[in-house]
Amino acid sequence: CELPIAQLEVMQSDADGPSYFTQVKEATAAEINLSESAPTQDEEGEEIQRLSVVGALPNIYAAHAMLMLRSQQLYLEWYSEDAAAEEVKQEDDPEALKARILELQEMLKKANKG
Asked: Residue 33 gets which letter from DSSP?
């Protein structure tokens, strides 16, 4: 599979104890190997790195599921913070508030007509 390099760095970090890769290996008895090829870019321009999971088939499925779960957790953690910051920024912008009020008024008019 392929994962963003930023996420791989977090998963490989052992600053707070065993790395996530180590935890996956211990839980599933599967090996996680990073590709030696150069990173590529996905559609959004984010650098991604290929990795492989080696072991018995059920262990591979379990390890892959753990990696995908952690990837989604990191994604939500990082991007929900960005979205929340943007939402707060927009809430403080008077022009954005006026535009939102107009949008809501239009929705209300449409709802009252129907």
From this structure: E
- d(Cα 94, Cα 86) in Å, to the nearest integer? 14
Q: 63-68 long-range contacts, Cβ below 8 Å, gap at least 24?
A: 63/24, 63/25, 63/27, 63/28, 63/30, 63/32, 64/1, 66/23, 66/24, 66/27, 66/28, 67/1, 67/3, 67/11, 67/24, 67/32, 68/1
Predicted TM-score (pTM) of this structure: 0.66
In order of 4, 94, 110, 111, the CA distances from 72 in angstroms are: 11, 34, 37, 37
48-102 pLDDT tens trace: 999 999 999 999 999 999 999 999 998 888 877 666 566 555 566 677 777 777 8
Q: At what angle do helices 57-92 and 94-113 cross, to 10 degrees?
A: 100
Stated length of the chain: 114
- Give the integer Cα–Cα distance in Å for 83 and 106: 25
Classified as helix, coil or strand, 58 is helix
